[in-house]
Amino acid sequence: MTANAQLAGIRSASRPRLDWRGLALIAGSIVAAAGFAWPFVAPALPQDAQRAVPYLALALVPAIVAVLALALDRQFASAKAVALLGVLGAIGAAARVLGDTVGGIEPVFIVLILAGRALGARFGFLLGLIVVAASAVITGGIGPWLPFQLFACAWVGAGAGLLPRVRAGRASKGVEVVMLAAYGAIASWLVGALLNLWFWPFAIASGSSISYTADAGMLANLKAFVLYSLATSTLTWDTVRAITTVVGIALVGRPVLAALRRAKL
Q1: pTM for this one?
Q2: Would you say 28 and 66 are in contact if contact means Cβ atoms under 8 Å apart?
Q3: Alpha-carbon distances, residue 139 vs 45, 103, 132, 135, 198 (angstroms)
Q4: Concatenated DSSP letters for 213-233?
Q5: Count of CB atoms situated within 10 Å of the CB of 44
Q6: To 5 degrees, how large is the angle CA 159–CA 162–CA 165?
Q7: 8-state DSSP, 74
Q8: Residue 42: which region, alpha, beta or left (left: phi > 0; alpha: psi -120 to 50)?
């Protein structure tokens, strides 16, 4: 084998391959995303929307079960992987419960982002599901909002694992932390907006500039929703979450990433 062929083989092996499990996880996420976005594509009167939400949430349960089963492949067959999931799941659930008691100060995103970055997108996705499910059982927060929260936090963990790689070197560690902190801020605002979607159509009485209008176009409702999110969570709760995440990653990002990567070996 020539040197060029060997180099091509190494490059090919180093690229992450998207197998059928990965494609199925993407398909499940697309189904969930459609569940989030229904106010823009499926007009309904507010009272009808409120009655339909429990059924919509129930319809997302099979997608959750499917992605959970698909995520539990050979990558999680080892005792080390199970132990990491258990420990990080407990830490994340405790962090999320703590965040429920102090408005907006939610350190759970720090756990999800650092774990997803160090241990991979699929691990981050599964960890997000486990953290939300465990914390919901602890606090009794089980309701039609839960499937939406499960996918939103799973996407946060998976997204961290899908961020671009940085070149090896001492300076790259600082670059990686800055990238993760920026991602954490953006994720904090996006998740807050996503979780507003499931109840926004029936949260505000009709007739205002931030209320859902069944016969309005997509752009009109999108504008109303953006104004609603800015007024109710983006500039307050979500911004506090973003600051908490950025500060936490800046303070503990480098040592925690190093520790998780050592544990992965």
Answers
A1: 0.80
A2: yes
A3: 32, 15, 11, 6, 21
A4: -TTS-HHHHHHHHHHHHIIII
A5: 16
A6: 135
A7: G
A8: beta
Q: 199-208 — which CB contacts under 8 Å span 24+ positions?
A: 199/53, 199/145, 200/39, 200/225, 200/228, 200/229, 201/39, 201/44, 201/46, 201/49, 201/50, 202/46, 202/47, 202/49, 202/50, 202/53, 203/228, 204/228, 206/46
| Best CA proximity match to 168, nearest among 261, 245, 101, 96 | 261
Nearest one of 237, 28, 243 to 125, comparing CA atoms: 28
- Terminal-residue alpha carbon distance, the chain: 30
Q: DSSP secondary-structure letter at 234?
A: I
Q: How far apart are CA 121 and CA 118, in angstroms?
A: 9
Domains along the chain with CATH numbers: 19-264 (1.10.1760.20)
Strands (E), the chain: none
Query: Token match 């419960």: residue?
Result: 97
pLDDT digits (tens, 9 = 90+) for 143-161: 778 888 888 999 999 999 9
Place of tokens 């090896």: 168
The predicted-structure confidence for 83-104, as pLDDT tens digits, reads as follows 888 899 999 998 888 876 666 5
